[in-house]
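It is worth pausing here to work through a concrete case rather than discussing structure prediction in the abstract. The textbook approach is simple: state the sequence, then state the predicted structure, then interpret. We follow exactly that order.
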Amino acid sequence: MVGDPAQSSWSDPDEAAAAHDEALGTRPWRRFQLTVNYRNLAEVAELAAKVLALAMPGTGPPTAVRSTGLTPRFVVLGDDPGAVLRAEVRRLLTEVDGTVGVVVAMDRRGEARAWLAGLTGDDADAGTGVGDAGEPRGRVVVLGSLEAKGLEYDAKVVVSPAEIADESPAGLRVLYVALTRATQRLTVLSGERDEPDAAGVPELLRD
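Step two, the predicted structure:
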């Protein structure tokens, strides 16, 4: 069995632990803890660790082994969130060769896909179309927060961390998962509910 309590979307950790014990029964078992993070840059992992500290106080994150100096980027959505998202996705398509994942709260999926509709290779010398988790087309994939688990993308855009954190009892853990899906670039787009500071950093991600 492989699992990470910090990435669990099960709303009640105690209930999840009881289910784990019931499944194993009386079989002998040993626990091994992952201590190395190969997926994320250290700069991304450091940001995600701030959410982990809120979601599961006292839980230490695995140590990232890669560092490039490319820190996460913060942008405020402002009065035209669709235009801001499109511009950011276009920019990321020029910076990575692979996929760009856009993560939003579950009830924002249709809206985000509409914002990105028509984004084609002519915009950024990239693949064509916008896909979802079940039907990817081209290099841009729009995901609801609960659909990001287990996936990874070269670049990631996380839209409104506060909305993701507030949408379920496990919201902070779901946000932690969303932030850790990026292998090269990470952008966080903040809305009004995120209470961004002058640098665009949402309250949840500030020190």
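Step three, interpretation. The chain is about 35% helix and 20% strand. Residues 81-95 form the longest helix (15 residues).
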